[in-house]
Amino acid sequence: GAGVSQTPSNKVTEKGKYVELRCDPISGHTALYWYRQSLGQGPEFLIYFQGTGAADDSGLPNDRFFAVRPEGSVSTLKIQRTERGDSAVYLCASSSRGGAYEQFFGPGTRLTVL
Amino acid sequence: AQSVTQLDSQVPVFEEAPVELRCNYSSSVSVYLFWYVQYPNQGLQLLLKYLSGSTLVKGINGFEAEFNKSQTSFHLRKPSVHISDTAEYFCAVSDKNTDKLIFGTGTRLQVFP
Question: Which of A14, B16, B36, B107 fits a 20 to 30 Å CA distance from A99?
Fold first, then answer.
């Protein structure tokens, strides 16, 4: 079956611009996670959805970052006024129920802010 | 706050040799522990996980890990590695009150012929 997909695979933007990153989870998975992986680092948690609601957004670095999941399936991570420090690979994962259930990761979106 | 320490950033090893990748975590509460592998140009894939029960956990591709509560460690082992095991390996922890994973910085396993 289809895994987690993320679009675009690569995004290059200029400092100050707005970007949207999309995640399509595995069908039927209720839990969805966003992580950010900087060069040479492990993934860093950003936000977790259970259904349509954000159950934990404690990892969002500041108010320039926002994520939605309006119908409990596809999610969009939105970054306003991008900064060069936002450059990273943004990973999305989904899980059938959250908790101890396995998180399945997508291939990521590589964001480069010039 | 929880944290994960992977003591070795790189581990070079010859093919068919045994390998151990070290992972220590800091937490005073019950935890779930995971090892993920990231092959070049691919997404993260779960190798194995410890939730409860037996402290020795077996995963895919011949890997295993042992949970040691007293030493707060979850080291990954394989008795004989292959060239195809060359990849980045990440240890991760989550506690039973949240669902987010806290990852270590990763260990790059390089297997030489």
Answer: B107
Q: How many CB atoms are closer than 10 A to CB A3?
A: 13
Residue A105 lies in a domain: no
How many domains does chain A divide into?
A: 1
B19-32 confidence digits (pLDDT tens): 999 999 987 677 88
Residues of B with CB under 8 A from a CB of A: 4, 32, 36, 42-46, 49, 51, 90, 92, 94, 96, 98-106
**B3-112 has CATH 2.60.40.10 classification:** yes
B23 vs B19: CA distance, rounded Å? 13
* Residues of A within an 8 Å Cβ radius of B: 3-4, 31, 33, 35, 40-45, 48, 50, 55-56, 58-59, 91, 93, 95, 98-100, 102-108
Cα angle at B88 between B8 and A86, to 5 degrees?
A: 100
Does residue A28 come out as left (phi exceeding 0), alpha (psi in the -120 to 50 range) or beta? left
* Closest Cβ opposite residue B100 in set A42, A59, A108: A59
